[in-house]
Design a protein that fits this description.
The complex is a heterodimer. By secondary structure, chain A is an all-alpha fold. Helix content of chain A is 58%, strand content 0%. Chain A has 2 domains: 69 residues, no CATH class; 103 residues, Alpha Horseshoe (Leucine-rich Repeat Variant). Chain B is an alpha/beta fold. Classes of the chains: A mainly alpha, B alpha/beta. The interface between A and B is large, with 66 and 57 residues.
Chain lengths: 212, 434
């Protein structure tokens, strides 16, 4: 005879401690309640604060479409908002988000260039491969590393071929990154190439495991 | 089926859980399940470890690691100068030397070839990325929970651990705490009858995670406290001393929320009990204070913050057609009348990581996967994240574990990942989603 579970004496949830007061200029709730067109206006408005633009991008990551791309992409070279622009662009399903990231590359440098390259990899944008190959041996290691990693993620035949060359052609400090990118790309040729002596041991063993 | 599997096969898992079922069959099994005392260890057989981001919970972990004669900790890393020094002092004192080297950059610690395994006890925002870096460097990993901030991170972590063949143990130590083992064993052995509902206690309330900022304060000298590294892959915001001193858990940018904080333990145990370690729940329906979910095998999962039978924090309760069991961190166990003969007295608290750490160390040597391995932990975390996404959206969501995607819900799918702040990245993050 199945026994019924004992009735549960539900107790009310414990009451939260009040949050510390937040200054109105840093209150996200009114921004997060806006619809997409108003969020785009907020991002594009030169009078908007960094906080307002950041939170608008945060929300546009979920609800932004094609119309949001130009205003958001304009922030890719902003020292404090570049990561928020990428936050909004990476999950945007419209292809124009990839186009905007590609078009931004020549105007960016340093971390912000590395970030835009990473976002193209996250979006697995095959049209970016030619551009990324040019950055594989960039003097800035963050940029070069991002390009190698993104090629591994995009993993088209052309990207795989470029990574194969990069395993030996990029400067020594980048070779482990190229090896890890090749492991992600994981074509049979790349896995075979990862047996080479200059490949870091963990990657070499992983490639052996993956190809067996 | 998920696109990956770890070294722990389903058959292997079944064997392990059969051993668990034996816990409920033998009154002495619990005592016998305690790890045997470690034999003397030669210096060459030591497990050489590094410690990263050791705060309050990490200090408790590290004391247990240091008490095991197999372990030698040779390095610790923290972005806080005071913590680097205090943890070095703790390690050196325990080991009777001055050999623990201090690092402010984790990549420098991970580059040491003599380090075989790492303890990662940073806060949540760094868990996945640091674990991925460690796996790529060929280290075995014990990482505190929650293991991820997003669904994408959860899969990426599991895939990277599998790809590099590392031993990974999430800090979900209740899998190695006897009262929880007993409860899971009763569910999996069929003693509860057909399992109908599993209950996971989540930390109340879910609505507290904020998106606000606190006012900017002058940034400290990065040699003393490195704000940029503290933020790591999270979105930039101006420095305020309250974030790193207890305030971070209030913010969505840094924390997975009430479901993740306790759900990483309790949902994890529910999945284990419900024979769902290899998958995730497929339907999520928000309630005022939690989420009701359902697995493909028909078992209902109730995530709720309410207390039940006053057994301590992190309650789980499993109900079947023939009875029920409930337990929590006090170690006390409540059973339906017909199962009272199964009762055991357990004095170990749910927060005690000692057996969990020994499980990890044993697996480093045996090259098997421990109980909170990357795959099962990934799946439990995906369930938690999916539940929290449904709760944030305020609507019912359906999840397809094979596609790793919500069904016909673009907004929910766009919440599966978050862009890392430049220049941070890790290689598996986008390939982890279909």
């Amino acid at each position: 005879m199945p026994q019924q579970p004992a009735p549960q004496a539900a107790k009310p949830a414990s009451q939260p401690k009040p949050l510390p007061a937040v200054p109105p200029e840093f209150d996200a709730a009114p921004i997060l309640a806006l619809d997409a067109p108003k969020l785009v206006q907020l991002v594009a408005d030169p009078k908007s604060t960094v906080f307002q633009k950041a939170k608008a991008c945060h929300r546009l990551a979920v609800i932004g479409g094609k119309d949001a791309v130009p205003a958001v992409a304009a922030l890719l070279d902003h020292p404090e908002l570049s990561n928020y622009a990428r936050f909004a662009l990476e999950p945007n399903p419209d292809p124009s988000a990839s186009t905007a990231l590609r078009n931004a590359l020549p105007k960016l440098s340093g971390r912000r260039l590395a970030g835009a390259i990473t976002s193209l990899g996250v979006r697995q944008d095959p049209k970016a491969v030619d551009l990324l190959i040019k950055y594989m041996d960039h003097a800035d290691s963050d940029v070069a590393g991002a390009a190698l990693a993104s090629l591994g993620r995009i993993a088209t035949p052309q990207a795989a071929k470029a990574l194969h060359q990069a395993l030996t052609s990029v400067r020594a400090e980048l070779q482990p990154i190229a090896a890890r990118a090749a492991l992600i790309c994981a074509t049979p040729d790349l896995l075979k190439a990862l047996a080479g002596p200059n490949v870091p041991k963990p990657v070499r063993l992983a490639a052996l495991k993956q190809s067996s | 089926m998920p696109k990956f599997s770890s070294g722990l096969t389903r058959r292997g898992f079944a064997n392990r859980t059969a051993a668990l079922a034996a816990l409920s069959a033998s009154p002495t099994a619990l005592a016998q399940s305690q790890p045997a005392p470690a034999a003397p260890v030669s210096p060459n057989d030591r497990i050489v470890m590094g410690a990263i981001g050791i705060g309050g919970r990490g200090t408790e972990d590290i004391r247990h690691f240091l008490s095991d004669p197999r372990v030698q900790i040779v390095a610790n890393c923290d972005i806080r100068e005071d913590r680097r020094e205090s943890i070095k002092s703790l390690i050196d004192k325990a080991q009777g030397n001055h050999d623990c080297k201090m690092y402010s950059n984790a990549q420098d610690l991970l580059a040491r070839p003599d380090i075989e395994a790492v303890l990662i006890a940073t806060s949540d925002r760094w868990h996945t990325l640091m674990s991925v870096w460690a796996a790529e460097a060929g280290k075995d990993i014990f990482c505190e929970k929650p293991l991820s901030l997003t669904i994408a991170e959860s899969y990426a972590l599991a895939e990277t651990v599998r790809r590099y063949g590392r031993v990974y143990q999430a800090g979900c130590q209740r899998r190695n705490v006897p009262n929880f083992e007993l409860a899971v064993g009763l569910a999996r052995s069929g003693k509860l009858g057909r399992l109908q509902t599993v209950y996971a206690n989540t930390l109340a309330p879910l609505s507290r995670l904020g998106h606000n900022w606190w006012p900017a304060e002058p940034e400290p000298d990065p040699r003393v406290f490195d704000w940029d590294q503290w933020l790591g892959p999270c979105p930039w915001r101006p420095y305020n001393a309250r974030y790193p001193n207890g305030g971070r858990g209030l913010f969505w940018d840094f924390h997975g929320g009430g479901i993740l904080e306790w759900g990483s333990h309790t949902v994890d145990l529910c999945q284990w009990a419900a024979d769902a370690d290899h998958t995730q729940a497929i339907e999520y329906e928000p309630t005022p204070n939690g989420v009701n979910a359902r697995y493909a095998n028909g078992v209902k999962l109730v995530m709720r913050p309410d207390g039940w039978m006053n057994l301590g924090t992190c309650h789980v309760r499993f109900e079947g057609t023939n009875g029920w069991v409930e337990t929590a961190d006090s170690g006390r166990i409540e059973l339906s009348e017909n199962l009272r003969s199964e009762h055991r007295t357990v004095t170990m608290r749910g927060t005690d990581p000692s057996r969990h750490i020994q499980d990890f160390l044993n697996c480093i040597r045996s090259r098997t996967q421990p109980r909170s391995n990357a795959e099962s932990s990934c799946n439990a975390h995906v369930t938690c994240h999916a539940a929290y996404i449904a709760w944030q959206l305020g609507r019912k969501c359906a999840w397809d574990p094979a596609k790793r995607a919500f069904v016909n819900d673009e907004q929910a799918n766009r919440m599966r990942s978050r862009a890392y702040r430049e220049p941070y990245r890790h290689d598996a993050i986008c390939n982890s989603l279909g």
